[in-house]
Amino acid sequence: MESTDRKRSFEEELRELESTVDTLESGSLSLEESLKAFERGIGLVRDLSGTLDAAERRIEVLLREDGTGALRAEEIDEDAAE
């Protein structure tokens, strides 16, 4: 996990996942290191998936009409996606 309280961006987590996959595919890690990297990768996939799910819900809310033909926005609890 990151040592600061700053939430990392989707793009930062995606870059880390890509780097992790590249490292795993290189075959240069020991079995133990590979397992740790794989676990980290799975965590990143879950985080990224949650972020995408939250974005999808937000888009659906924005596109849903309220009966007047006007679009409306609702706040989504981003912590619920984690």
What does this structure look like?
By secondary structure, the chain is an all-alpha fold. It has one domain (10-81). The protein is 61% helix and 0% strand. It has 2 helices and no strands. The chain has helices at 10-26, 31-63. The longest helix has 33 residues, at 31-63. The radius of gyration is 18 Å and the shape is rod-shaped. The chain starts with 9 loop residues before the first helix and ends in a 19-residue tail after the last helix. The relative contact order is 0.11. The mean pLDDT is 83.
Structural features:
61% helix, 82 residues, single chain, 2 helices, mainly alpha
Could you provide a short overview of the structure?
The chain is an all-alpha fold.
Strand count, sense and barrel status of the largest sheet are: none
Number of domains: 1
Low-confidence stretches: none
Order of helices and strands: HH
Can you give the helix content as a percent range?
55-70%
Q: Measure the end-to-end span.
A: 14 Å
Global mean pLDDT: 83
Based on Cα principal axes, name the global outline. rod-shaped
**Rg, Å, rounded:** 18 Å
Blueprint of the fold:
Blueprint: H1 10-26, H2 31-63
Helix pairs in contact: 1-2
